[in-house]
Amino acid sequence: GNDSKTIGPVPTFSVWDYVVFIGIVVGASGIGLFQAIRSRKETSSEEFLLGGRQMTAVPVAMSLTASFMSGITVIGTPAEAYLYGTAFWLFGFSYALMSIVTAELFVPLFYRLRITSAYEYLEMRFSRPIRIIGTSMYIVQTALYTGLVIYAPALALNQITGLDLWGVLVATGAVCIIYCTVGGLKAVIWTDVLQMVVMLVGFVAVIARGAVVQGGLTKIFEDAGEGGRLDTFDFDPDPRKRHTFWTIVIGGSIMWASIYSINQSQVQRYISCRTLGHAKMALYINMVGLWVTVSLAMLSGLTMYSIYKKCDPITNDDVATSDQLLPYMVMDILADYPGIPGLFVAAAYSGTLSTVSSSINALVAVTMEDFIIPLWKNRTEKQVTWLNMGLSVFFGALCIGMAGVASLMGTLLFQAALAIFGMISGPLLGLYLLGMFFRTPNSIGSLSGLLIGLALTLWVGIGAQIYPATADKTNPLLLTVIGCNSTMSQNHTTQPPWTTACVIFSASVRPPLADSWYSLSYLYFSVLGVIATMVSGFLISAATGCKQEKLSPTLFIRKSDLICFGGCRTSEVTLCALVIF
């Protein structure tokens, strides 16, 4: 392989790239509109928000996968492998545990209760105020996350094409708003299927071309091994180390469980399945989809390392942040193939579209179900439909605003996104588990538990954002610029003027907590939230007396829910066998 690389200005988009890119984005929106027009006859609220509860397992599974394989994942995970090695691969275990927990505990419960909003359960089990607090937490978390999701690919696009950062942000929001407003959930699910395919093809193109440039996949693995990128298993129990076997398998499982089991964007999808069997099946297929995606992303990152092992674009100032590495490499090795870079950017971008549109759709569903419908008695279907559309526009605009906030968050968008989930979903998951497994917890205790858990996770999470952990905790691997022939660098990265202020603020003085409490691995935020919420919720419930009004037994997990073979059909039994082996 040619080890010394001349890094000059990387080519920008060709005409064909723009054609492919625009084609895919328009195609995606087209599917949304087509679905909408096709099902115009049934414009009930149920149809708009739940796809009429008629979806089958495979499209829903692809949609579940696509919505979390957002642009952040497409861009962030390869950079993760490039900088820190393949520990991230261990998330394969987390995905498996998460899928089993969600499919065997939460799905049967939600199906039995026939709910639209995951937070309806909180009212059935506890009280109306708890439901409202749960919903509000979800809205805050989703708006923040969606802001990050819009910001990540915009940053990458800005790097490659030199398109204006804010122009891209607003355009993204606009496209999503259009097909959420018109299409509802069916549009979202079918567009996701297309986008999933585009994303995987994008990864494969990068890996294949990289392997050709470097002289085979074995060469890529040799380079990665020499660079220490293949030390996947680290059994150090220290909770402050960013990625170890334990933080990923324990912390990662709980964090992904909190995303998949109680996050409205996901719950909404599997509730839209025809039968319980389809819903469970969708989760297991989704698990395989996540495995494939994370593996391809890791491989892309190793390919990137193999190509840039002698000349790191970050140190050499060719890219501004690690999130721009993958787009940079795509332009570098695929520019001779007109249309392929366009395909790739479309992949990252369609990941964003799918996540943003599903977030908007879920935010609308939750707001309608939990805030508006209970308050507004004499409404007509037509008014509801118009309100649905209005809310789609409102939340779309809110998310674009949050993208502005995201530009303040500094590096590693991927980690920031998962940290937000950990901080907010962790305590919520604790609340659900309290309600599902135990009869003792009452409203007062559980609410106090939730607030205590939230206070703790926000304290540690915001602390970690202000005082980032030092390198001995995060363990970045070595990078070098020995082989750089030219120092010509081109940056069209427009850096927002306010990023520097945050950095100065953090570096000045580190409080004693910075290296112990604030250095907690971001994957443990959710674990902390779950444990704090459950323990304090239990104790306070016991203290405030457990005179429970009669609760229906359907609100709790049954014995039959726990056993996979509890009267399920052959298809599910074989699936369980597959999962076990």
TrEMBL record:
Pfam families assigned: SSF
GO CC, alphabetical: extracellular exosome; plasma membrane
Subcellular location per the Swiss-Prot or TrEMBL entry: Cell membrane
Top-rank taxon, per record: Eukaryota
TM ranges: 15-34, 55-75, 87-111, 132-153, 165-185, 197-217, 243-262, 283-308, 343-366, 386-406, 412-435, 447-467, 522-543
Keywords: Cell membrane, Ion transport, Membrane, Sodium, Sodium transport, Transmembrane, Transmembrane helix, Transport
GO biological process: propanoate transmembrane transport
InterPro entries linked: Na/Glc_symporter_sf, Na/solute_symporter, Sodium:Solute_Symporter_SSF
Membrane topology value: Multi-pass membrane protein
Transmembrane listed as a keyword: yes
Gene Ontology molecular functions: organic acid:sodium symporter activity
NCBIfam families referenced in this protein's UniProt entry, alphabetically: sss
Similarity field: Belongs to the sodium:solute symporter (SSF) (TC 2.A.21) family.
Alphabetized PANTHER family for the sequence: SODIUM-COUPLED MONOCARBOXYLATE TRANSPORTER (PTHR42985), SODIUM-COUPLED MONOCARBOXYLATE TRANSPORTER 1 (PTHR42985:SF25)
Protein name listed in UniProt: Solute carrier family 5 member 8, like
